[in-house]
Amino acid sequence: MARVLVVEDEPSLRFLLERGLEREGFSVLVAASATAGWELLDRADALVLDWMLPDEDGLAFLARLRRLPRYEKLPVIMLTARAAEADRVQGLLGGADDYLTKPFSMAELAARLVALLRRAPVQGPVTRGALSIDPERFEVRLAGQPLQLTRREFDLLLYLAAEPGRVFSREKLIEGVWGADFFGTLRTVDQHVAQLREKLGAGWIETVRGKGYRFVEAS
Ligand code: CA
User: Fold this and answer.
1) Of the residues 116, 120, 148, 207, which has the maximum number of CB atoms within 10 A of its CB?
2) Residue 37 · residue 54 · CB < 8 Å
3) Domains, the chain, ranges and CATH?
4) Which residues make up the environment of ion ligand 1, defined by Cβ < 5 Å?
Protein backbone atom coordinates (compact mmCIF):
# COMPACT_ATOMS: atom_id res chain seq x y z
CA MET A 1 0.00 0.00 0.00
CA ALA A 2 1.45 3.34 -0.99
CA ARG A 3 1.92 5.78 1.84
CA VAL A 4 1.02 9.38 1.21
CA LEU A 5 2.16 12.22 3.41
CA VAL A 6 -0.26 15.13 3.54
CA VAL A 7 1.20 18.45 4.73
CA GLU A 8 -1.71 20.82 5.24
CA ASP A 9 -2.21 23.30 8.07
CA GLU A 10 -5.96 23.71 7.72
CA PRO A 11 -7.46 21.13 10.13
CA SER A 12 -10.71 20.42 8.31
CA LEU A 13 -9.02 19.99 4.94
CA ARG A 14 -6.29 17.86 6.51
CA PHE A 15 -8.97 15.63 8.00
CA LEU A 16 -10.83 15.38 4.69
CA LEU A 17 -7.63 14.52 2.85
CA GLU A 18 -6.71 11.88 5.40
CA ARG A 19 -10.12 10.19 5.32
CA GLY A 20 -10.56 10.65 1.58
CA LEU A 21 -7.19 9.20 0.64
CA GLU A 22 -7.63 6.31 3.07
CA ARG A 23 -10.92 5.56 1.39
CA GLU A 24 -9.10 5.59 -1.95
CA GLY A 25 -6.81 2.88 -0.64
CA PHE A 26 -3.77 4.83 0.48
CA SER A 27 -2.04 4.67 3.79
CA VAL A 28 -1.94 8.28 5.00
CA LEU A 29 0.42 10.27 7.22
CA VAL A 30 -0.53 13.81 8.14
CA ALA A 31 1.39 16.87 9.26
CA ALA A 32 0.08 20.33 10.13
CA SER A 33 3.29 22.21 9.39
CA ALA A 34 6.38 22.04 7.23
CA THR A 35 8.47 21.19 10.28
CA ALA A 36 6.25 18.25 11.23
CA GLY A 37 6.07 17.16 7.59
CA TRP A 38 9.82 17.15 7.19
CA GLU A 39 10.15 14.65 10.04
CA LEU A 40 7.80 12.21 8.29
CA LEU A 41 9.23 12.53 4.79
CA ASP A 42 11.41 9.46 4.97
CA ARG A 43 8.34 7.30 5.43
CA ALA A 44 6.36 8.66 2.50
CA ASP A 45 5.99 7.24 -1.01
CA ALA A 46 4.32 10.44 -2.18
CA LEU A 47 3.70 13.92 -0.85
CA VAL A 48 0.62 16.15 -1.01
CA LEU A 49 1.89 19.58 -0.06
CA ASP A 50 -0.08 22.71 0.69
CA TRP A 51 1.53 25.85 -0.61
CA MET A 52 0.64 28.20 2.23
CA LEU A 53 1.94 26.78 5.49
CA PRO A 54 2.44 28.65 8.75
CA ASP A 55 6.14 27.96 9.16
CA GLU A 56 7.49 27.67 5.63
CA ASP A 57 6.35 28.36 2.11
CA GLY A 58 5.44 25.08 0.39
CA LEU A 59 7.68 25.90 -2.55
CA ALA A 60 10.63 26.54 -0.24
CA PHE A 61 9.93 23.24 1.47
CA LEU A 62 9.86 21.53 -1.89
CA ALA A 63 13.11 23.13 -3.01
CA ARG A 64 14.78 22.01 0.23
CA LEU A 65 13.55 18.46 -0.24
CA ARG A 66 14.64 18.21 -3.87
CA ARG A 67 18.18 19.09 -2.88
CA LEU A 68 18.43 15.75 -1.06
CA PRO A 69 19.19 12.88 -3.43
CA ARG A 70 16.86 10.47 -1.66
CA TYR A 71 13.87 12.74 -2.34
CA GLU A 72 14.79 13.59 -5.89
CA LYS A 73 12.13 11.26 -7.27
CA LEU A 74 9.52 11.53 -4.54
CA PRO A 75 6.19 12.25 -6.27
CA VAL A 76 4.86 15.62 -5.08
CA ILE A 77 1.48 17.22 -5.70
CA MET A 78 1.13 20.85 -4.59
CA LEU A 79 -2.18 22.23 -3.35
CA THR A 80 -2.93 25.87 -4.01
CA ALA A 81 -5.80 28.00 -2.78
CA ARG A 82 -6.33 30.16 -5.83
CA ALA A 83 -5.99 29.86 -9.57
CA ALA A 84 -3.61 32.84 -9.46
CA GLU A 85 -1.32 30.84 -7.19
CA ALA A 86 -1.63 27.90 -9.51
CA ASP A 87 -0.24 30.05 -12.29
CA ARG A 88 2.72 30.92 -10.14
CA VAL A 89 3.24 27.32 -9.15
CA GLN A 90 3.11 26.35 -12.78
CA GLY A 91 5.63 29.06 -13.53
CA LEU A 92 7.98 28.10 -10.77
CA LEU A 93 7.05 24.48 -10.53
CA GLY A 94 9.91 24.22 -8.11
CA GLY A 95 10.15 20.50 -8.51
CA ALA A 96 6.46 19.63 -8.08
CA ASP A 97 5.21 16.85 -10.32
CA ASP A 98 1.68 18.16 -10.38
CA TYR A 99 -0.61 20.65 -8.68
CA LEU A 100 -4.29 21.03 -7.85
CA THR A 101 -6.30 24.17 -7.15
CA LYS A 102 -8.65 24.09 -4.16
CA PRO A 103 -11.40 22.98 -4.14
CA PHE A 104 -10.62 19.71 -5.89
CA SER A 105 -12.21 16.29 -5.80
CA MET A 106 -10.65 13.48 -3.83
CA ALA A 107 -11.09 11.19 -6.81
CA GLU A 108 -9.01 13.50 -8.96
CA LEU A 109 -6.27 13.79 -6.36
CA ALA A 110 -6.23 10.01 -5.95
CA ALA A 111 -6.07 9.46 -9.70
CA ARG A 112 -3.13 11.83 -10.03
CA LEU A 113 -1.34 10.19 -7.13
CA VAL A 114 -1.81 6.77 -8.66
CA ALA A 115 -0.41 8.04 -11.95
CA LEU A 116 2.65 9.51 -10.24
CA LEU A 117 3.24 6.45 -8.09
CA ARG A 118 3.12 4.23 -11.12
CA ARG A 119 6.19 6.11 -12.29
CA ALA A 120 7.96 5.89 -8.95
CA PRO A 121 8.19 2.48 -7.32
CA VAL A 122 6.96 2.36 -3.72
CA GLN A 123 9.55 1.53 -1.12
CA GLY A 124 10.83 -2.01 -1.55
CA PRO A 125 11.51 -4.52 1.20
CA VAL A 126 14.15 -3.65 3.79
CA THR A 127 16.42 -6.56 4.64
CA ARG A 128 18.57 -6.59 7.76
CA GLY A 129 20.27 -9.91 8.35
CA ALA A 130 17.58 -12.54 8.93
CA LEU A 131 14.92 -9.89 9.15
CA SER A 132 12.94 -8.69 6.16
CA ILE A 133 10.38 -5.89 6.29
CA ASP A 134 8.13 -5.33 3.31
CA PRO A 135 6.22 -2.04 3.58
CA GLU A 136 4.18 -2.71 0.47
CA ARG A 137 2.85 -6.03 1.73
CA PHE A 138 2.88 -4.97 5.39
CA GLU A 139 4.84 -8.12 6.11
CA VAL A 140 7.74 -8.90 8.44
CA ARG A 141 9.67 -12.15 8.27
CA LEU A 142 12.34 -13.41 10.59
CA ALA A 143 14.42 -16.22 9.09
CA GLY A 144 11.59 -16.69 6.62
CA GLN A 145 8.89 -16.99 9.27
CA PRO A 146 6.15 -14.34 9.20
CA LEU A 147 5.67 -12.27 12.37
CA GLN A 148 2.33 -10.82 13.40
CA LEU A 149 2.87 -7.16 14.17
CA THR A 150 0.36 -4.43 14.81
CA ARG A 151 0.38 -1.49 12.45
CA ARG A 152 2.21 0.63 15.00
CA GLU A 153 4.78 -2.04 15.81
CA PHE A 154 5.37 -2.43 12.10
CA ASP A 155 5.84 1.30 11.56
CA LEU A 156 8.15 1.55 14.55
CA LEU A 157 10.29 -1.35 13.37
CA LEU A 158 10.51 0.00 9.83
CA TYR A 159 11.41 3.45 11.12
CA LEU A 160 14.21 2.15 13.31
CA ALA A 161 15.51 -0.40 10.78
CA ALA A 162 15.67 2.19 8.01
CA GLU A 163 18.77 3.58 9.71
CA PRO A 164 20.61 0.87 11.65
CA GLY A 165 22.81 2.22 14.40
CA ARG A 166 21.15 5.61 14.55
CA VAL A 167 19.86 6.46 18.01
CA PHE A 168 16.32 7.83 18.05
CA SER A 169 14.98 9.62 21.10
CA ARG A 170 11.51 8.64 22.20
CA GLU A 171 10.27 12.10 21.22
CA LYS A 172 11.67 11.63 17.74
CA LEU A 173 10.03 8.21 17.48
CA ILE A 174 6.68 9.68 18.51
CA GLU A 175 7.01 12.33 15.84
CA GLY A 176 8.13 9.93 13.15
CA VAL A 177 5.92 6.94 13.89
CA TRP A 178 2.77 8.31 15.49
CA GLY A 179 2.82 11.87 14.23
CA ALA A 180 -0.42 13.73 14.76
CA ASP A 181 -2.20 10.56 15.99
CA PHE A 182 -0.23 10.43 19.21
CA PHE A 183 -2.23 10.49 22.42
CA GLY A 184 0.11 8.64 24.79
CA THR A 185 3.19 9.38 26.85
CA LEU A 186 6.86 8.51 26.44
CA ARG A 187 5.98 5.23 28.13
CA THR A 188 3.88 4.35 25.10
CA VAL A 189 7.07 4.14 23.06
CA ASP A 190 8.71 1.91 25.67
CA GLN A 191 5.68 -0.38 25.62
CA HIS A 192 5.80 -0.73 21.85
CA VAL A 193 9.52 -1.43 21.92
CA ALA A 194 8.91 -4.09 24.58
CA GLN A 195 6.20 -5.69 22.43
CA LEU A 196 8.50 -5.65 19.41
CA ARG A 197 11.33 -7.26 21.37
CA GLU A 198 8.93 -9.95 22.53
CA LYS A 199 8.11 -10.79 18.93
CA LEU A 200 11.56 -10.34 17.38
CA GLY A 201 13.62 -11.86 20.14
CA ALA A 202 16.71 -10.35 21.70
CA GLY A 203 19.33 -8.33 19.89
CA TRP A 204 17.47 -6.18 17.37
CA ILE A 205 16.51 -3.10 19.31
CA GLU A 206 18.98 -1.69 21.77
CA THR A 207 18.30 0.75 24.56
CA VAL A 208 20.80 3.57 24.67
CA ARG A 209 20.54 4.79 28.22
CA GLY A 210 19.35 8.35 28.55
CA LYS A 211 19.15 8.73 24.75
CA GLY A 212 16.61 6.38 23.24
CA TYR A 213 16.63 3.32 21.00
CA ARG A 214 18.54 2.03 18.03
CA PHE A 215 18.20 -0.83 15.62
CA VAL A 216 21.08 -3.26 15.35
CA GLU A 217 21.40 -6.32 13.20
CA ALA A 218 21.15 -9.29 15.55
CA SER A 219 23.82 -11.91 14.96
CA1 CA B 1 -2.59 26.46 4.08
Assistant:
1) 116
2) no
3) 3-119 (3.40.50.2300), 126-215 (1.10.10.10)
4) 9, 50, 52
